[in-house]
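Sanity check

After download, print the first record. It should look like this:
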Amino acid sequence: MSVVKERHWVERAACKDMGHALFFPELGEDVRPAKEVCEGCPVRSECYTYSLEISTHHGIWGGKSERERRGNRPAWKAEPEPIRHGTEAGYGAHKRRSIKVCLGCRNAHREYEGRQKHNRLQRGGN
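Expected structure tokens:
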């Protein structure tokens, strides 16, 4: 049974009548109050599984933060976008993945660097 399709568990959640702000803290805000609500929740595991199935990147789900959930996502969700060869973005993708940079991406990067240097010189920089 998929917790995404069968969401009856939501009605039993300890947080069902609480505001969402507690579970979606801003960067640097304390997450402990949300996790404390989750500790005694009868549907904590369903909530956690739901967050993995929908691959959400924000909020506290099942008592876990995004950082804590990150390693448990299904592998098919973690596959990277295809490299856009012949572009500066493609060059960056090669570098982030530690893959040998193809000629098209290398040339696009050289053109980008040339434009950046030209712009710096126009502004009087080095």
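If your output differs, re-run the checksum step. Summary of this record's structure: The mean pLDDT is 84.
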